Every structure is written in structure tokens, then in C-alpha cells.
Amino acid sequence: MIVHLCFHGIGTCEREREPGEARYWVTEPMFQRVLDEAAAHPHVRLSFDDGNASDAEVALPALRERGLRATFFALAGRLDDPVSLAPADLEELRGAGMAIGSHGWAHVPWRGLSAADARRELVEAREAIAAASGATVTEAALPLGRYDRRLLGRLRSAGYRTVYTSDRFPARERSWLQPRYSVTAADTVESVRAYLTHRPGLRDARNAAVSLVKRLG
Q1: Does this model's pTM top 0.90?
Q2: How far is CA 146 from the centre of its chain?
Q3: What is the crossing angle of helices 28-39 and 189-197, to 10°?
Q4: What average pLDDT does this structure show over 171-176?
Q5: Cys-Cys link to 8, which of 24, 110, 126, 197 (CB 3.0-4.6 A)?
């Protein structure tokens, strides 16, 4: 089994673009300490959602320093936003050996989209991110973690190799759907260590059951 840790923003959230966004940002000292903890556990995988500029400015140097690799899920609709990842940042991340995935176009839930909106979020966004990064994009992270059977079918039809959720339980390395633990402002190094080292238990089973209900719904 592997454990995915997902980050969103590093530093201070100066302006929330969605209500509650700030609670998904972690301070730079906390981020550095969590990376040190993750580096001690070979079964840990790292990813970054939302395409914030701190991914390139803070996360990339810290990852390089520790010899770590991560996947960065960018937003196509924010590639020209000054506080978000730009095409040059995506190229730099890719050149450093990082993977680039799609987080869609406008950071909206993908569940229940019309056919036209689904094409924009699942297909056109991927094409824009691939063009900006100079690499094929085969992975997606679900905005806000929401999904159902219809959406997963659309993602399979669109040809995504791996899809990442926010379901908070350990993952099987070769599974198409990969649950992750989001690191938040409320976390401590001790709480993150607990995610990485705990033996699967009742809470994991409950979260896996919720995921199954969503996949069948």
C-alpha cells in the first residue's frame, strides 16, 4: 500500500478564490518539516493541486533539495493568473523531473457537468496544460474531491491513466482511482506522521466504503 499526501498552497493565502481556501494552505516551515517526514517513508507519494505559484517558488526547490518527486495538477484557466503557475513554471517543473496533471479549467466540481462543460474541463483543459508544459497529460485530480459513476466513466472515456481523489485512505499502487490525504493548516508533523505510519483501521474502512458508494452512485 502507498499513501498520497496532497498540498494546495504554501505560505499565506492572501486572497481566497473560494470560501475556505485558506485552510488548505500550510506555512513554509510546516511544509519543509512535512517533506522531511515524507522523505523518510518510501511508500509516500506527493502531489499539489490548484496550480498556485508557490508550487514553483517554494515546493520545487524544497523537493529538489531532498531528491523528491511530485505530481502538479494545474488549472488551465489560471495559466495567465499572476499568482498561479504559468506555462514557463510548468516547463520548469517538467524539466526538473516532476509530473504534470490536470485539475481542470475553472476549479469547479466535475460531477453533474453538461456535455459541453465536461469537454472543457476534462478534454480542453488537458490539451491546454499539455501544450503549456510541453508534455502529454495522462493524470487528473478531482476538483473539490466530488465524483460519481457517471463522471468516472467520462474520465475513462477521455483516456486518463490515473485519477486522484480526496478520500483519505491508503491506496493500492496500480489502482486507477487513487485516494489522497490533503495536508491542511490544522495539521501538525505528528498528525501527518500518523497518516503515513498508521495501520489501516476502522476509519480507513469507512472512507473506502464512502468511496465505493460514490463510485456506484
Answers
A1: yes
A2: 13
A3: 30
A4: 94
A5: 24
The Cα 135–Cα 118 span in angstroms is: 22
Angle between helices 149-157 and 202-216 (to 10 degrees): 70
What is the sign of the dihedral through the CA atoms of 156, 79, 127 and 122?
Answer: positive
Q: For residue 4, which phi and psi values (nearest 5 degrees)?
A: -100, 130
C-alpha span between 23 and 179 (Å, rounded): 20
Q: Each residue of 43-57: pLDDT tens digit?
A: 999 999 999 999 999
Give how far the C-alpha of residue 128 lies from the chain's centroid of Cα atoms, to the nearest Å: 18
3-state secondary structure of 190: helix
pLDDT of residue 215: 81
Neighbours of 199 (CB within 10 A): 6
> Measured between alpha carbons, how far is 79 from 85 in angstroms, rounded to an integer?
6
pLDDT in tens, 108-152: 999 999 999 999 999 999 999 999 999 999 999 999 989 999 999
CA atoms of 16 and 22, how far apart (whole Å): 6
Sheet holding 177-178, edge to edge: 177-178, 162-164, 139-141, 99-102, 70-74, 44-48, 3-7, 181-182
Terminus-to-terminus CA distance in the chain, angstroms? 26
Looking up cell 504554501, which residue turns up?
Answer: 10
By C-alpha distance, which of 166, 150, 169 is closest to 158?
150
Q: What's the rounded Cα separation, in Å, for the pair 217 and 197?
A: 31
